[in-house]
Design brief:
The complex is a heterodimer of chains A (115) and B (459). Chain A has helices at 9-12, 36-42, 45-51, 82-85, 96-101, 109-112; strands spanning 4-8, 13-20, 23-30, 59-65, 70-76, 104-108. Chain A is of the alpha+beta class and 115 residues long. In chain A, the strands form two sheets. In chain A, strands 2-3-5-4 form a four-stranded antiparallel beta sheet. Chain A has a two-stranded antiparallel ribbon with strand order 1-6. By secondary structure, chain B is of the alpha+beta class. A ten-stranded mixed beta sheet of chain B has the order 12-13-9-8-1-2-3-7-4-19, with helices on both faces. The radius of gyration of chain B is 24 Å and the shape is globular. The chains are: A alpha+beta (115), B alpha+beta (459).
Chain lengths: 115, 459
């Protein structure tokens, strides 16, 4: 058995999306604070930006909040014009929290220690 | 003066559950502490849509659910001395004040003191072309846009002024969302306008409560992962704020939903960009040192909030019209649905192109990829997963005229006969497009006015 396993972020974390203009922010919080370091290593701003490149996103900044065991990703130019300009059904981009949660990561089994 | 003040929220946006305020008001009254309740009813474009309503009818343009939201709680609130604040004035705060006066008289409350705060509407007073564009909007092309509305996000001071003048209900247009919670706290505790630490706690109170159920289980529940009790009856939030600047988030008893570390974290970061600088007109909030602790069932204490001086510039959101959205939808299901759906989408786009109906068009394959997709359909075109059995094809166009948008949307209808085998279920519609852009404007160019009169004097 391999000593790493592939999981989605949805298996160990939760997220909420918010919008302002043509930007979206995605929070990301592990259910277990012990997984904060794991997310800090694997869920980089570059990887998150790559999830939204097809929509023309131009940049992503990650803010770390270790006291809250949370991350905040701010993605620029991702809403195809924003809530009012977009032709997308989801002009707010509120569904994007679940695009982030669909990201897969490779995790050493011993670091998961889930029940 | 009590050391604890309660702030309840009755609505998180225009369109929220209209029966939500009732248990919140009941809980505030039952607890018997000094309290206030606020309604946040304005999204980025709500004011523009309201402005278009007002053009059609000079007495319209305020929150359409206003009477429905207030009628069940207004008399009880007045009796208990619990003021209500709201930006439910939208594009026509004066008409909203008159509507509240009519409601109050009907409820036998002719002496109810109604406060009106105006000054947020800067569409006639400020030349936006000379103002700085807010950074989040820097990339947008605004040629050919026509101004509908321009409103400044005003702060808590004029709202607190109305409370000081004895207002039992305060109606405003565009305010910052947190200002609706800061104002009653400022008024009750006598916070100074430059007490950044106190105002930071007030801003966090407003920020956590302003979206109603979003801190008590709304947009949170994820069956099997984040379950909440009774999602059909989520209790809207109540904050307990101490004179010592303690802050605790809870909700009414006997309601559904949940308040825990997860719900509060999600809402604390909602619509936040730099967590060290969450800017409101009253204070700059820093949550980088914030931490949370459970303090009982459905009770979360928020610690470590920090405040920094407010900005010199106020945000103004301007709304423009000028184009039309046409949408048409149709469905396919069963064997070979994916191939039929892709062909349908391509044909719709080809028809729009041939007829020259749109400036911009996209097709979605709902059930394959839509909300996460791009205008060019990168996700559904590249889809290679299991065969979906039920797909709705959606066409969306931006058109210069209403007629072009209508003609484009009817291309979905035409597929009832011209489409692939088994195509059915057409719907089509046209809506005016409202575009927004935000500017930064010097504070002194946005004077506000506060007026408080009993219901019988509002005509």
């Amino acid at each position: 058995m391999s000593n790493t396993t592939t999981i989605t972020l949805h298996d160990i974390a939760h997220s909420r999306a918010g919008d302002k203009g043509n930007r979206v922010n995605l929070s990301l919080m592990p259910y277990d604070p012990a997984h904060y370091a794991l997310l800090a290593e694997q869920v980089t701003a570059e990887r998150v930006l790559a999830l939204f490149r097809h929509r023309g996103a131009t940049g992503c900044t990650r803010y770390d909040l270790p006291l809250l065991h949370a991350f905040n990703f701010v993605i620029d130019d991702v809403l195809e014009g924003g809530v009012n300009g977009s032709l997308n059904l989801d002009g707010h981009g509120k569904s994007h929290s679940f695009r982030l949660l669909g990201m897969t990561i490779e995790v050493p089994r011993e670091r998961l220690n889930r029940p | 003066m009590s050391d604890l003040f309660l702030v309840g929220n009755g609505a998180g946006f225009s369109g929220d559950r209209v029966d939500a305020p009732i248990p919140v008001m009941r809980s505030l009254i039952k607890r018997g502490l000094p309290a206030a309740m606020f309604f946040e009813c304005l999204g980025e474009r709500t004011v523009a849509l309201a402005q278009l309503e007002r053009r059609r009818d000079p007495e319209a343009g305020y929150e359409p659910m206003l009477e429905r939201l207030l009628e069940p709680i207004l008399a009880d609130a007045a009796r208990a001395g619990i003021p209500i604040l709201g930006n439910f004035g939208a594009a026509n705060p004066l008409a909203a004040a008159r509507a509240i006066a009519r409601l109050a008289k009907r409820l036998g409350l002719p002496e109810l003191r109604i406060g009106l705060v105006t000054g947020d509407d800067v569409s006639a007073s400020i030349n936006l072309d000379s103002m700085a564009v807010h950074e989040a909007d820097a990339g947008l092309d605004m040629s050919s846009w026509k101004l509908v509305s321009a409103n400044a996000y005003i702060g808590a001071a004029p709202l607190a002024e109305a409370l000081a003048a004895g207002a039992q209900i305060v109606v405003a247009g565009r305010t910052s969302d947190p200002a609706l919670a800061i104002a009653p706290l400022m008024h009750h505790f006598g916070w100074a306008e430059d007490d950044w630490q106190a105002l930071a706690v007030g801003a966090a109170t407003g920020h956590l409560l302003e979206c109603g159920s979003q801190v008590t289980g709304g947009v949170f529940w994820d069956p099997g992962f984040k379950d909440i009790p009774d999602p059909a009856n989520i209790g809207f939030p109540i904050a307990e704020v101490g004179r010592n600047l303690s802050l605790l988030i809870t909700k009414p008893e006997d309601t559904g939903g949940i308040v825990d570390l997860r719900t509060v974290k999600e809402q604390l970061l909602y619509e936040v960009h730099d967590p060290a600088r969450y800017i409101t007109p009253d204070v700059t909030l820093d949550i980088t040192a914030a931490h949370l602790a459970m303090a009982g069932k459905d009770r979360v204490a928020v610690h470590g909030l920090r405040g920094a001086p407010r900005p010199d510039l106020l945000k103004v959101t301007a709304c423009y019209e000028g184009s039309w959205l046409g949408e048409g939808e149709i469905s396919v299901a069963g064997p070979n649905a994916l191939a039929r759906a892709k062909a349908t989408a391509d044909v719709l786009l080809e028809r729009i192109k041939r007829r020259g109906l749109a400036r911009r068009a996209r097709a979605d394959l709902i059930g394959v990829a839509s909300v996460h997709d791009s205008d060019d359909g990168a996700l559904w075109r590249g889809y290679d997963g299991p065969a979906p059995q039920d797909i709705r094809i959606r066409l969306a166009v931006e058109a210069t005229t209403r007629d072009d948008a209508d003609q484009a949307s009817r291309e979905a209808l035409a597929l009832l006969c011209c489409g692939t085998a088994g195509t059915s279920g057409a719907r089509w519609r046209v809506t005016p497009r409202i575009l927004t852009r935000s500017f930064l404007v010097p504070r002194d160019q946005v004077p506000t006015e506060t007026r408080v009169l009993p219901a019988r004097e509002w005509n």
